[in-house]
Amino acid sequence: MKNFKTEIKWAIIFSIVTLLWMFLEKNVGLHGKHISQHAIYTNLIAIPYIIIFYLAIREKKQEYYQGIMSWQQGLISGGIMSVLIALLAPLVQYVVSTIITPDYFNNVIAYVVDQERMTEKAARNYFNLKSYMIQSAFGALAMGIVTAAIVSLFLKTKKK
């Protein structure tokens, strides 16, 4: 566990940032009256996510690898962090969907059906807690590994 304290710390920070972001989205109306804009603005969360991965891998390089880190070591650290985030994702999604924004699913279903983008049945099958828990876990894992790979390219120790 001691070897992974950096990844654990940053996975928890990542999860807290996600909760704060969802609280912000709800409070600016992206889960209600401005739901039509949600798909655009929710993607801005990628900026803090990339910063978190950068800070986490940089910390791993400095604290654990004493400033000398290969791309593979950065990728492994980011991969471990991605797995931890994916494990926390269903819990985070549960908190978001039941405490922060319990009306989100009903609002988004009504919106996509009204816009004729989906049938009500299809919308209910897609926009629900179970579906979002699965999507958040697999999405965190996939995007986390990709982000870790890219960030590690920038943070690897350059050969002299």
Task: Give a structural overview.
There is one protein chain. The protein has 160 residues and is an all-alpha fold. The protein has one domain (2-155). The chain is built from seven helices and no strands. It is elongated, with a radius of gyration of 18 Å. The two termini are 33 Å apart. The mean pLDDT is 97.
Number of DSSP helical runs: 7
Shape: elongated
- Coarse structural class: mainly alpha
Mean pLDDT: 97
Oligomer: single chain
User: In total, how many domains does the architecture comprise?
Assistant: 1
N to C succession of SSEs: HHHHHHH
What are the low-pLDDT stretches, counting only 5+ consecutive residues below 50?
none
Index terms:
160 residues; mainly alpha; 7 helices; 76% helix
SSE blueprint:
Layout: H1 5-27, H2 38-41, H3 46-64, H4 71-100, H5 104-114, H6 120-126, H7 129-155
Task: Summarize the structure in short.
This protein is an all-alpha fold.
